[in-house]
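re: ur msg from earlier - yeah i can do the D-malate complex, just paste it... oh wait u already did. ok heres what im feeding in:
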Amino acid sequence: MPDLSYIDVFFSVQAFQEEELRGKSAVIIDVLRASSSIVAAINAGAKKIIPVEDMSDAVKIARTMDQNDYLLCGEKDGTMIEGYDLGNSPLEYTPEVVQNKTLIFNTTNGTKAIKKAALANRIYIGTFLNQQSILNALAEHDDEVVLICSGWRGRLSLEDTMFAGSLLHKLCNGKLPEKTKDGAKVAFGLFEKFGDALEETIGKSDHAYRLRNLVPEEDIPFCCKVDEFDVLPGMKDGIITNLNG
Ligand code: MLT
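and the outut:
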């Protein structure tokens, strides 16, 4: 079980240095929508997911693979990238489409946060959809924990902070000890205030407004479902697989 007084929350990709994660367990959070799509894809039977930082890295990796084995997935500024097979809507990631495929995944903030966490001892991809799996995984080890909110281009995102707060709330049974990091206090406080109205609160976040008219309407309610899937996407050597599998 991690020591709650050491759990830290970083509020964007730019808010931490790679070295700060060495030896720690990191949970990468991008509720809208990269974490949710990764969790849905792993649940739907994707063989592995290779997160990349940008389109040129995606193409380089794709060139080394057989065309029948991979799908190019992701978005830029919320919209599907031209020539890609799939966008970043979790509802696109069905067994019919992704089973046994390798997904090369490229998003504006989420996959950058995952790549930047490479020095962590354990790297999990978490969102409301697989909350319990994340809690179970964290409870197994004494590592210091960092909750990394992907945010949006260096800014805080309400939905990511809400999920960090939700994890903290469950880890301390609703009572945050006095000696905790500022980031943990902020995330916990936000969840305490708005946790009972998750979908309504996230539906009014900056990113929900940004995505309006760009993505299917169902995406936001879907990303607010709690414990929908029992999967634990984790990254080792740059590859995400289901650690619960
Ligand atoms: C990101 O990585 O910034 C997001 O997942 C964007 C999105 O909602 O598609």
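cool cool. The longest strand covers residues 70-76. ping me if u need the other ligands too
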